[in-house]
Amino acid sequence: MYASDDSGPAMTPLIARPEWHELLAHASAMFSQSPSSPSSQSPSSQSPGTPLLRTLFAEDPNRAAAFTVQAADLRLDFSKHFVTAPTRDALVKLAHACGVEDRRDAMFAGAAINQTEGRAVLHTALRAEPNAEITVDGINVVPGIHQVLERMRNFATRVRSGEWTGATGKRLTTVINVGIGGSDLGPLMASTALAGFSDPDLTSRFVSNVDPADLLEALSASDPETTLVIVASKSFNTIETLSNARAARAWLVESLGEEAVPAHFVALSTNAEAVAAFGIDTDNMFGFWDWVGGRYSIGSAIGLSLMIAIGPENFDDFLAGLRAMDTHFQNAPLEQNGPVIAALLGILYRNFWEIETHAVLPYSQRLSRFAAYLQQLDMESNGKSVQMDGTPVQWATGPIVWGEPGTNGQHAFYQLIHQGTSIVPSDFIGFLHPEADVGGQHDLLMANMFAQAEALAFGRTADEVRAAGVEEALVAHRTFPGDRPSTVILAPRLTPSALGQLIAFYEHKVFVQGVIWGVNSFDQWGVELGKALALNIGDELTTPEAPTLDHDSSTNALIALYRKAHGR
Ligand code: G6Q
Measured between alpha carbons, how far is residue 83 from residues 55, 342, 384, 436, 449 in Å? Predict the structure, then answer.
């Protein structure tokens, strides 16, 4: 068992491990075989040769099956990556050497693995069965989790049925979630993804940005008499959220009076004192705990807006989906473990191919916010450059994550992925069955997804272009190098359970990478600095007396210009 005062498994520097060197030799050999690898691309190279992925598939007719993993309901096809069985073995050896399994077990057991904040990391407990036992500081946290879930279910049911009404007795039909970052992106993404499961009589809105346009847009489309405002803030001291919540409260009070607040405002937070000070009765607060990180909080009270939209039963299915992937992650051998393999491939590209970005390409319009959600999950977790013990890493860490749904992206940025000078490993995410179909369009959607993954991997050689009768002057332009690796993730349907599985798949992928890189995936000091600096500059922008500015000359000039524009 991993002890909380240990400095983690990365006692031997990652790059000094024999497994790292084995992998380096292995990856370099493969790297040099791909005509598309950066080292093979010189200005003089006329046309790339046969893509390495073509060779790998030709050598092993069983390749697709050999590199496909079933993780709960997700079918994960990793065959279009630069891996052979020995590569996979070398990657898995690295994971073993870095203590991935011990660290995973420590997380699930409630050890304080978030060392810089001295906290356990227990988003997995949020979806544990009621009879599970997970202790933090000697106390089983599971009963408390289920008590909050039960209160959420009761409240959501009453709102949905119209039993819980607004102050004037009208049914609440608009739910505005006011929160930011982890208190916004999860419920926003999941509500968008599961809109097909939502009560059509309810409208969900999300206000996050301190830009007044965000709040005004939501309020101007809402009626105070029929609106429920959910103030979602773990700390309840986030300036954006409190500013928006105060303004929303004033909007309500202006038309319905102070006494209307309890019927229209609830809070999701760990900070009961601040909730009460804000003016929300703590009877109308749904709590959670410091061991739930913001970006991992969708299964906690932060999911209340989602539960109201899709109903408690669907929310339970969502939790069951998260739990199904937890079970897979805990039990599957590493070489058959979906999140582990995905993490290791990410390490292969980031550290041995020096690739900086990773694209997430869902073939589902409902997943339009999924890449944004993963951006936070991945980049806030592993965008770190010091190890647990504070020493600098000597290897690359988290990639830049980005993406948009297909097929839209195909008509925009895919050009670069196909024929640009950067290799962008990509995740294609699709569903066998649509929520509803229109004239066979789902077939077309999926045909596009399969075709893109195929074209990226295998390309189109110059000879094939010539054979198609293309004039010589255009051959180079119409040649596709291939060797653009991707994972194809398929689920039967986009259900609450499937969404839960997808989320947990990525949570655990990010976790495994953080363990191998030796960083703390669960703090976010970079966010904290921005919060503190903005408070200071906020005062300088608004104070009536000209402040003494001691920033750099650029920041000083910007502040002065802004003050002048406002006649201050
Ligand atoms: C997430 C981060 C961050 C956080 C927001 C909102 O992991 O910690 O995105 O969720 O800053 O914080 P509050 O919920 O405390 O308002």
Answer: 12, 12, 27, 37, 22
Over residues 473-493, the pLDDT tens digits come to: 999 999 999 999 999 999 999
Q: Are 125 and 134 in contact (CB under 8 A)?
A: yes
**CB atoms inside a 10 Å sphere around CB 213:** 8
Distance 272 CA to ligand 1 centre (A): 16
Q: Which residues line ligand 1 (CB under 6 A)?
A: 180-183, 233-235, 238, 241, 293-295, 380, 524, 527
Residue 399 sits at φ, ψ, to 5 deg, of -80, 170
At 182, which amino acid appears?
Answer: G
Q: Report how far residue 411's alpha carbon sits from residue 425's, in angstroms, rounded to the nearest whole number.
A: 18
The model's pLDDT over 375-421, given as tens digits with 9 standing for 90+, comes to 999 999 999 999 999 999 999 999 999 999 999 999 999 999 999 99
Distance from residue 180's CA to the centre of ligand 1 (Å)? 6
Q: Residue 170 and residue 159: Cα distance in Å, rounded?
A: 11
Beta-bridge partners for 167? none
Residue 181 CA: nearest ligand 1 atom is 9
Residue nearest to atom 2 of ligand 1 (CA): 294
**Which residue carries 């079970």 as its tokens?**
327
Separation of alpha carbons 319 and 184, rounded Å? 18
Catalytic residue set: 380, 411, 531
Q: Which of 180, 290, 535 has most ligand 1 atoms within 8 Å of its beta carbon, as the pocket-test mutant?
A: 180
DSSP-assigned letter for residue 267: E
Distance 208 CA to ligand 1 centre (A): 11
182 Cα–ligand 1 center, Å: 5
Using CA atoms, how far residue 147 sits from 58, 67, 320, 564, in Å, is: 56, 42, 17, 54
- Ligand 1 probe mutation, 527, 529, 531, 535, most atoms within 8 A of CB: 527
- Tell me the one-letter amino acid at 59: E
Residue 184 per-residue DSSP state: T
Q: Which two tokens stand for residue 243?
A: 């500013």
Q: Of the candidates 35, 18, 43, which has an alpha carbon nearest to the alpha carbon of residue 94?
A: 18
The pTM (predicted TM-score) of the whole model is: 0.95
Rounded Cα distance, 513 and 533, in Å: 30
36-68 confidence digits (pLDDT tens): 665 554 433 444 578 999 999 999 999 999 999
Pick from 358, 333, 303, 312: which is nearest to 510 by CA?
A: 358
CB-based burial, 320-357: b 16+ in 10 Å, e otherwise:
bbbbbbbebbeebebeebbbbbbbbbbbbbbbbbebeb
Residue with the smallest CA separation from ligand 1 atom 5 is 181
Q: Ligand 1 centre and the CA of 293: distance in Å?
A: 8
As a whole number of angstroms, the distance between CA 509 and CA 425 comes to 15
